[in-house]
Amino acid sequence: MPELIAGLAQAAASGTIAGQYLPGDITCDALPFCDTILCRDCLVHLSYENIGRAIANFRMSGAAFLITTTFPAWQANSDCEDGDWWALNFEHAPFRWGRPLITINEECGEAGGGWSDKSLGVWRLAELPLPD
Length: 132
Description:
Layout (H helix, E strand, L loop, with lengths): L1 H13 L21 E4 L8 H13 L4 E6 L31 E4 L4 H4 L5 E6 L8
Parallel strand pairs: 1-2
Antiparallel strand pairs: 2-4, 3-4
């Protein structure tokens, strides 16, 4: 991962791509101020506890909105150990974030279409309850 970050930072410095690329831990490292956080394909790899920490940390950035991966057709959530993966529907327990303001279906064709509901959901960060 450090090589990826270094390569992206070098490409940005040379003007090949735009952006700022820094390593960090979303659960505890200070994040730069921004309006919106895009956290695609990440929270689904964290335990409930660390999702709560990440959301609290995202709020500290001053961001108004969170865009993150969600699976709207998924009816029940299960906790996992950090690094594992599980489809999560943030509308259901233990999150109960309510319906996203916007849902963008990614039209995922992986697993023979088994993840066809994989979407990006947009929520107001200040309104998100932390997990039970």
